[in-house]
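SAMPLE LOG
Freezer: B-3
Tube label: C17
Construct: single chain, 495 aa
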Amino acid sequence: MDLMYVSTRDSRVRLTASQAILKGLAEDGGLFVPERIPKLPVSLEELSGMSYQETACAVMREFLTDFTGEELKGCVEKAYDDKFDTEEIAPLTEACGAYYLELFHGSTIAFKDMALSILPHLLTVSAKKNGVKNEIVILTATSGDTGKAAMAGFADVPGTKIVVFYPKNGVSPIQEKQMLTQKGDNPLVAGIHGNFDQAQTGVKQMLNDPAFAAQMDAAGYQFSSANSINIGRLVPQIVYYVYAYAKLRANGAVCDEPVNVVVPTGNFGNILAAFYAKCMGLPIGKLICASNENKVLTDFFHTGVYDRNREFVLTDSPSMDILISSNLERLIYRIAEEDSDMNKRLMAELADAGRYEVTSGMRGRLKDFYGNYATEQETADTIRRLCEDCGYVIDTHTAVAACVYEKYKKDTGDRDTKTIIASTASPFKFTRSVMKAIDGRYDGMDDFELVDELAKIAGRPEPLAVKELRTAQVRHNTVCNVSEMPDVVRHFLGV
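STRUCTURE (predicted):
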């Protein structure tokens, strides 16, 4: 029997997995969630002997039940191939008392590669399964990493185009150059005069505009999304938590006991995937939600109040500079005991007043989570400490997680539970911030001189993705106001 997907704002809306992937966002503005979370299909012992690709097939087939085994296997094999620089795809590195799950070994050196390598293939199979004749146009907002990973995934995929919006002054120099140099005939990237939340809201409005959709349909196009609001992004992220636990078990580090998971969190999709893995039966104890100085999620877990009415802070961990964590809605729906009317009311309050408060009963269902944040200084100190004490160099986002993990241990006294920290980007992606944290004397160097120095300190060669940027040609130069985003899309598509 197929596992169906419902809208968080109207549980009467039911689609198959492939339909939900194609749609991206429900017409009522809700997000698609599975009507139930399936259980792990095989034992932990069996999982511990599987490759990443085998694990992906085993986990994802439980969620994508209208895909045939061959269809899913084909998507997995195309996604997790030699574009990753390690056979393990997502290796674990032990450092300073924690296990760092390195999710940055793909072609754009950030964790978004893990899901965005497979989403184009899931999408094109979904289109074929549902008899779609239109060309699919992916609309995406990015706080830095999703954009490049999505463009790399969709570049020259037949039957698709992709438009990415990013905050012009809110990403790292290397993140921006990665996007602006993207090759292919079907991608466009545009900087906006605004922040990520404004870019994300603009994309959601376009995805949810019936008149715009009709105009696109008449021209032979239909919209979908590559943001983590698309269930086709979320499901592949569950895989690497299952794989990480299975590898710890295979190595004898755990024997079926729970581990904690720490995730540097912005849009809430990555930690939600860990929560779904826990719901599947993976032995996970605490889900530790790590924020930077945009600590809207920390405050939510402490008070039950989600309030985006605050100053937006530009930090050295820009992929987490977010005040509207879209995927939190999926958790709210669950702790509201799948009451879509309740969830719809809370989301309306967020849209109208910029805040909402969950009930005491809902707060009681958040016991699996711990939230805290790291200041900019604490983030830099953590990078330097790990480098000096363990010889392990991490990026700014991973440093937020490592810092919050130390706070968790101090607050709870839980120092013995084995812990996985999601390492979401290569330090080479945020070279200037990382090198400045290690030693202020590097401040005057240009970006590629810093790359050379970081390679020496980290004891690893610069990634191919960075090496290629040294001579890459800028191909995109569009910049617009938030209000002009629909016009940018129309112009690109010739509508």
